[in-house]
Design brief:
Helix 4 (121-128) packs antiparallel against helix 8 (202-218), helix 5 (146-163) runs antiparallel to helix 6 (171-179) and helix 6 packs across helix 8. The chain is α+β, with helices and mostly antiparallel strands. It is globular. It has helices spanning 35-42, 48-58, 73-88, 121-128, 146-163, 171-179, 190-198, 202-218; strands spanning 7-11, 27-31, 60-62, 91-97, 104-110, 116-117, 129-131, 138-141, 180-183, 220-221, 224-228, 235-239, 251-253, 256-258. It is built from eight helices and 14 strands. It has two domains: 7-118 and 219-258, no CATH class; 121-218, no CATH class. The chain is 37% helix and 22% strand. A hairpin with a 2-residue loop joins strand 13 (251-253) and strand 14 (256-258).
């Protein structure tokens, strides 16, 4: 007998508006994952975001006119959470340290309780187009995508391999290289952009990293979670963290618990 497939419809947090005039539809229908999808997810890969984006797309019954790999992180992570919910349920086990009693507390959160931040064009525009506080240069940023995250990972690994552990962390430079669109309205070459970033005042580069972080959080799920400590009753403010339970959850069958290996 073929197992029933769960199908649910969702609206992209960005409403498709962040992609400009491409006619991207906000409504998406997802089916629950199959064993074939899990086999693909579990396979080793140098581009993990691409793998997950492809799994999301394979589970789409209706598709917007934009690749999941090129969606803003808010839309991508929203669909990833919803795929998990319809495939494994909304309960998600976490271990957190209570700031009041210092004890490790095992808690179960409901993924459906996460609040979703929807697209606001004025707020997005204010984060994409910024003036640096020290140099006064005008910077146009790109929104981050799963493709860009894979690109940052691969470039960072290549840099570390080439430098042979020279004691330099290239994360800031590579992140800004991939996310700066223009400087004072001009598109710089790869080498020009690298030179610009290396000579940028540290206050300006950290300002840009902060704007990128705020931009990523402006659309999509708010990952803050309010919990109550089961040991002392104190309030705990924590944040959703990816862990083994996300795609390999514990499953209780009566008194028997099957733990994912």
């Amino acid at each position: 007998m073929i197992e029933p497939t769960i199908i649910e419809g969702y609206e992209l947090p960005s409403k498709g508006l962040i992609y400009g005039d491409k006619g991207v539809q906000a409504h998406v229908e997802l089916r629950s994952m199959t064993t074939s999808d899990e086999m693909k997810r579990s396979a080793p890969s140098n581009t993990p975001y691409k793998v997950l984006a492809e799994i999301i797309e394979s589970c789409m019954l209706t598709k917007p006119k934009v690749s999941v790999y090129d969606m803003c992180l808010g839309d991508y992570e929203y669909l990833l959470h919803k795929l998990r919910v319809i495939s494994h349920g909304a309960d998600y086990d976490m271990s957190v340290v209570c700031p009041h009693c210092g004890q490790i507390v095992e808690v179960t959160m409901n993924l459906d309780d996460l609040v979703c931040n929807e697209y606001d064009q004025s707020e997005i525009d204010a984060l994409l187009n910024v003036t640096l506080p020290k140099s006064g240069r005008n910077i146009e940023l790109k929104y981050q995508t799963p493709r860009i995250l894979d690109e940052i990972k691969l470039k960072t690994e290549a840099f570390m391999k080439k430098s042979k552990g020279a004691g330099i962390d290239p994360t800031i430079m590579i992140t800004l290289q991939t996310l700066i669109s223009t400087v004072d309205g001009e598109k710089l070459s790869y080498l020009q952009l690298e030179d610009f970033i290396k000579n940028l005042k540290v206050a300006d580069s950290l300002f840009l990293m902060d704007r990128i972080d705020k931009l990523n959080k402006k659309v999509g799920l708010d990952t803050s979670v309010d919990l109550t400590c089961s040991k002392c009753g104190g309030d705990i403010l924590t944040f959703f963290r990816w862990g083994p339970e996300f795609f390999r959850p514990s499953i209780d069958w009566g008194r028997k618990t099957l733990r994912a290996l």
